């Protein structure tokens, strides 16, 4: 069968042969035992409903074995034989170019070079799934191959509920992930529902088909590191940045450190992902001995090298040893997946990677105890460094939240706030999000590197022209982005699809997108998929990250994210998504995203202007109402350019009246 025929087939009527479990692939850890005997039967019934009853007797023991062995039913037998990668849009079967674009993006999320656990359909973060099992993937791709522009596919936490009649201006796909009743949004609720096959954790851009590999966060991390050094009034040259995590998102940190121009030490306990990142060029060196690491870092600092070093081991050992050696850390953070602390997101010190995984699956109470003990040591070591002048920030991965729950010494004197700020509170929020700058991204649907180079130039030309008349308040943001896009090709940021990201405000996103659409209309480039990270101005309500600099008491509300996805859906998005969880944990955040196909038409120009304007200014208006100074400036500027925009402005209260 050809690739197109395999896509159109969906779930095969003749069972494929069982697949060999490939040990060379980076697999998800075994999930903990959480289902009762009756619930295991229910999980099996739920899995078998995808298949004709005549196959149930053969599949039942296989699915039962998967559930016992891995804690989930992945249906490995149905994993496709073709290479999993983003192909040119013309390679996909179908009746809708928009649907083909979505197929391209789904396959990119599962590309072996992109996905953290590709055989378990997990893109990043340890549990950020595109689908829960391979039947869902096959059925979704079949639906997309059949869809017309008069239909919409409804996706329920990885399950394709079906194609429904709609219209050309409606989204082609509407995605929800993990949307549970609030009282059932604890970590164990996810474990149980996911094991039953009825819900999944979509992270941010995994379950919304908009992940573009570590590049997606390299830019934001680069800006964070640059502004972190600006905050402490020190040049990045000869500066030391210490952090941890080399997974799907955190793997961007060493590359960002290189671009920023400092020495980066990033610890990781997983040997496979460490060597993958090294082979991809995202880290320069791997060191496995802590004594050798100290010597190597001293040499790098003395010589003012720009180098990224992966320490294959636990980051707590790095913080403690650097303290003993009096090795000064300028910037410190952590990007382990602490939103998922009991299922592989964070590992205890004193145990090998294999020992930890065995403990996690077979003695989860002991594993939790050791993780919390390690968190307390981790925080204590950080405190010693900050007393010497280190600037530490929480990277929005729930490090401070979980450390506080473990009883670590990280609370401020008021015992309400943390000792250390979130990077959004101190850096990204006031410097970027409040002004409307966030992670705008695009993918060249042709798969042609030449198209990517052309779009880079188009974007750079647009930004340079805009900067001539930009107000002083956003000159630094504009300059950083122009520098970024000019170095994008030489930094070799592409992993998977031909994609790019930069931080832009609504004006920049609209002008860049319109320039792309005009270039498509002229035949200069192929079609382009627009998107963004959910970690943005408007899409995400997350009290410990994206909305951590909201101080009017509303940071635990999620109106903004819900309004965002509803508004995008009727303003022209090709697909929309809304998720529970993502980055900081299930039950800790609601986040929404979109995708939009540009095809060179006038209709696409109308859609991009209307949707991108809303997608950013929805968030600015909320931040303005929270009395954020930059957002008040930005929304007033937006109203001056768009007479149909009328936003309620806050009246500021004299603090002296309240004393």
From TrEMBL:
Q: Which reaction does it catalyse?
A: 4-imidazolone-5-propanoate = trans-urocanate + H2O
Superkingdom, taxonomy of origin? Bacteria
Family matches, as Gene3D superfamilies:
Urocanase like domains (3.40.50.10730), Urocanase superfamily (3.40.1770.10)
**Cofactor(s) for this protein?**
NAD(+)
The chain's coiled-coil residues are none
> Per the UniProt entry, what are the Gene Ontology biological process annotations, in alphabetical order?
L-histidine catabolic process to glutamate and formamide; L-histidine catabolic process to glutamate and formate
Write out the residues that bind NAD(+): 125-126, 203, 268, 395, 583
* Name of the protein in its database record: Urocanate hydratase
Please give the organism.
Answer: Flavobacterium terrigena
């Amino acid at each position: 069968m050809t690739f197109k025929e395999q896509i159109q087939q969906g779930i095969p009527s003749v069972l494929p042969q069982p697949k060999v479990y490939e040990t060379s692939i980076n697999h998800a850890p075994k999930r903990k035992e959480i289902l009762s005997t009756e619930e295991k039967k229910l999980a099996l019934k739920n899995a078998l409903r995808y298949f004709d009853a005549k196959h149930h007797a053969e599949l039942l023991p296989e699915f039962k074995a998967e559930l016992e062995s891995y804690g989930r039913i992945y249906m490995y037998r149905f994993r496709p034989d073709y290479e999993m990668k983003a192909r040119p849009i013309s390679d996909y079967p179908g009746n809708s170019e928009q649907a083909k674009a979505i197929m391209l993006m789904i396959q990119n999320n599962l590309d072996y070079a992109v996905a953290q656990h590709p055989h378990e359909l997990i893109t990043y973060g340890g549990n950020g799934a595109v689908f829960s099992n391979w039947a869902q993937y096959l059925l979704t791709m079949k639906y997309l191959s059949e869809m017309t522009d008069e239909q919409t596919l409804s996706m329920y936490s990885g399950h394709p509920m079906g194609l429904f009649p709609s219209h050309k201006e409606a989204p082609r796909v509407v995605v929800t992930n993990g949307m549970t009743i609030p009282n059932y949004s604890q970590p164990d609720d996810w474990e149980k529902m996911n094991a039953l096959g009825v819900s999944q954790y979509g992270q941010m851009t995994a379950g919304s088909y908009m992940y573009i590999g570590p590049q997606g966060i390299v830019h934001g991390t680069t800006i964070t590191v640059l502004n972190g050094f600006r905050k402490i009034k020190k040049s990045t040259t000869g500066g030391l940045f210490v952090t941890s995590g080399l997974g799907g998102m955190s793997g961007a940190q060493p590359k960002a450190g290189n671009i920023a121009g400092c020495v980066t030490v990033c610890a990781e306990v997983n040997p496979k992902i460490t060597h993958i990142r090294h082979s991809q060029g995202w880290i320069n060196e791997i060191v496995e001995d802590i004594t050798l690491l100290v010597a190597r870092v001293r040499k790098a600092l003395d010589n003012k090298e720009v180098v990224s070093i992966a320490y294959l081991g636990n980051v707590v050992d790095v913080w403690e040893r650097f303290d003993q050696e009096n090795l000064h850390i300028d910037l410190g953070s952590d990007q382990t997946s602490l939103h998922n602390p009991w299922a592989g997101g964070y590992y205890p010190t004193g145990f090998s990677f294999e020992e930890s995984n065995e403990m996690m699956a077979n003695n989860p109470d002991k594993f939790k105890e050791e993780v919390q003990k390690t968190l307390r040591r981790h925080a204590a070591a950080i405190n010693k460094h900050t007393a010497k002048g280190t600037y530490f920030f929480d990277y929005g991965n729930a490090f401070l939240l979980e450390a506080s729950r473990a009883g670590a010494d990280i609370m401020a004197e008021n015992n309400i706030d943390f000792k250390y700020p979130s990077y959004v509170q101190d850096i990204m929020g006031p410097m970027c999000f409040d002004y409307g700058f966030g992670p705008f991204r695009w993918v060249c649907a042709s798969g042609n590197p030449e198209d990517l180079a052309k779009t880079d130039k188009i974007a750079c030309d647009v930004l340079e022209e805009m900067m001539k008349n930009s107000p002083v308040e956003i000159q630094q943001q504009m300059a950083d982005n122009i520098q970024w896009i000019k170095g994008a090709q030489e930094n070799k940021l592409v992993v998977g699809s031909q994609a790019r990201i930069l931080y832009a405000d609504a004006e920049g996103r609209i002008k860049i997108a319109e320039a792309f659409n005009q270039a498509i209309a002229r035949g200069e480039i192929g079609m382009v998929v627009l998107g963004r990270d959910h970690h943005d101005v408007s899409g995400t309500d997350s009290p410990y990250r994206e909305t951590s600099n909201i101080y009017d008491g509303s940071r635990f509300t999620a109106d903004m994210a819900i309004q965002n996805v509803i508004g995008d859906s009727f303003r022209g998005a090709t697909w929309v998504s809304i998720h529970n969880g993502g980055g900081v944990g299930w039950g800790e955040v609601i986040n929404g995203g979109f995708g939009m196909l540009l095809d060179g038409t006038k209709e696409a120009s109308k859609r991009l202007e209307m949707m991108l304007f809303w997608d950013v200014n929805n968030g600015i208006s909320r931040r303005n109402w929270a009395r954020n100074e930059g957002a008040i400036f930005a929304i007033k500027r937006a109203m001056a350019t768009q007479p149909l925009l009328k936003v309620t402005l806050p009246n500021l209260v004299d603090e002296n009246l309240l004393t």
